[in-house]
What does this fold into?
Amino acid sequence: MRIYPHTQKTDSFALNPNFYFHEILHLMRNQHHSKYPPGYNALRRGRWSQAGQYYMVTAVTENREPVFRQYEIGRIVVREMMGLHDDGKVKSLAWVLMPNHLHWLLALGNQKTLPEVVRLLKGRSARRVNNRLNRTGKLWQRGFYDHALRKDEDVLKLARYIVANPIRAGIVNKIVDYPLWDVIWVSKNI
It folds into this structure.
């Protein structure tokens, strides 16, 4: 039996077979007390950062507002992403900035964790975009989605999928007609 000093509770499944059931039920009942939306904490659960690891990150604008429909506003985010790349915090492999969200395939550098990198991107870009648009308030939704790629995942295939997002969304017929994307591999087949 293990005692948790900060709660004075015991890990006593043998003494009380319903212990875990009641603990889970208690957590479920009190989940609504979080100041964040219900899915937000689930996004962070199990998140870890490893230098050199490939990640696919998705960040969405507040209320899915299509802020990046304006090319010059989208370029502000692109410059911030390029700055993170140039500083060695990430190696950008592929990205597409849609009118209301970003998909970014990157390899994490060894200076910052993934949440720190995304926080830098979102914070810096929000300040610059808000300044340019002469406004205040949130630019990005809280949190982000990330997927750490497994060794067996095809990085080039995922990069093609990311940059083809404007085609699938019906914004353009050819990716070369969409201005806010990049990929490190140059191919006629993208």
In short: The chain has a mean pLDDT of 82. The first helix runs from residue 19 to 29. Helices lie at 19-29, 38-44, 71-86, 114-132, 155-163, 165-168. The first strand starts at residue 2 and ends at 4.
